[in-house]
Write a structure and sequence with these properties.
This protein has ten helices and 18 strands. It is an alpha+beta fold and 352 residues long. The protein folds into three domains: 3-131, no CATH class; 136-273, Jelly Rolls; 280-351, Phage tail protein beta-alpha-beta fold, CATH 3.55.50.30.
Length: 352
């Protein structure tokens, strides 16, 4: 960190600076003390830092590349959203309470909201948090692994293979936010004063206390939220970045967000297919060849190599329920009758 170069930076310069973004996103904890020392020595730069912080975190939430985005336009949108909401609530509640409560009223009040409001909801509550608060706790599982976690609020999480979850070391008083990539089963400790919010790309899931499963692998074409108990609210971005849809789910209901079509659909679900994994059950229901291979790679921690001569009928589908079975056994079922041969060499499976 070349501290002297930041003395004349404005908020746009900070947004474009890789070292600043790395520190803010928690990927450079070794520089925390340097940044905190610089902030103490340069109080006049705090307003520019605060603008840059809101923009960087909002762009991260949108999944946008910072250099490719109009930084000035992003700030105008955030500023207008904040001002509009504060004006609407002026005089109704004390200012200290208002600054922490209006954000969640936005999310709860409407199913179709302006995208910028969601960005403010995601990040503005950390306005006065110290730098260390932005360094999340992160847990990852490799393919072939599962992991049970106990979050700071008492919520229990089972993380499936090839997944990652991050959350603050201490949750805020009025909201509990986590980010998920992959799949996890949540048993959320109830707290009506602090909703539990899971962010998975374009989908935001909000609960008070319930149990449910979220499947949100980046390579999948859909995000699925299946409710086991209680009630769940699911918001999803559809169409342009300013359009959102939401649904409310009860026990035995599932929301499926189709990424390409931008559709949010409610249905019932097969419990074995959606939740059986946490009890050691590998379940396939009319799964195509590519999806079957991908699921086996995650479950067993292997890599498939398919020889050019192996061709599967486009209409081929695989169904089955396997409890604690070896990979060799499943491949035998899949290949019958003579669709392909296979060899397992350590973590590599060759289909011939």
């Amino acid at each position: 960190m070349e501290a002297h170069k930041y003395d004349r930076f404005d908020y746009k310069d900070f947004v474009l600076d890789e070292d600043f973004r790395a520190w803010l996103n928690g990927t450079a904890p070794e520089k925390d003390q340097l940044w905190e020392k610089w902030l103490l020595a340069n109080p006049s730069r705090h307003p520019e830092i605060e603008k840059a912080r809101k923009i960087v975190l909002a762009l991260n939430f949108q999944g946008k590349s910072v250099p490719d985005y109009d930084i000035g336009q992003q700030w105008k949108r955030l500023e207008s959203s904040i001002a509009a909401s504060e004006a609407a609530k002026e005089g109704e509640t004390p200012s200290r309470i208002r600054s922490f409560t209006w954000i969640w009223r936005l999310l709860a009040a409407a199913c179709v909201v302006v995208g910028a409001f969601l960005f403010v909801n995601r990040y503005l509550t950390g306005h006065h948090a110290p730098a260390s608060a932005y360094v999340p706790v992160e847990h990852k599982t490799a393919n072939g692994q599962q992991r049970k976690l106990l979050l700071p609020d008492g919520t229990r999480v089972t993380l499936n293979a090839g997944s990652a979850i991050s959350y603050p070391q201490e949750f805020e008083e009025d909201v509990r936010k986590v980010s998920l990539s992959g799949e996890a089963f949540f048993d959320v400790k109830r707290n009506e004063k602090a909703p539990f919010v899971i962010i998975t790309g374009d989908v935001v899931t909000k609960v008070l206390g319930t149990s449910f499963n979220i499947r949100a692998y980046p390579e999948n074409k859909a995000v699925q939220v299946a409710v086991v108990s209680g009630k769940v609210k699911v918001n999803a971005q559809i169409g342009s970045e300013d359009q959102n849809a939401c649904v409310f789910l009860s026990k035995s209901e599932m929301a499926t967000f189709q990424k390409e079509a931008g559709e949010l659909i409610v249905s019932t679900y097969d419990e074995k297919e959606q939740i059986g994994w946490k009890d050691g059950m590998l379940y396939f229901q009319k799964s195509d060849f590519h999806s079957t291979i991908l699921k086996l790679e995650r479950w067993y921690g292997v890599k498939f190599e398919v020889a050019p001569g192996v061709r599967m009928d486009a209409d081929w589908r695989f169904s089955g329920k396997f409890q604690d079975k070896q990979l060799d056994y499943i491949l035998g079922v899949m290949s019958y009758p003579g669709r392909f041969s296979y060899k397992i060499n350590n973590s590599v499976v060759k289909l011939q």
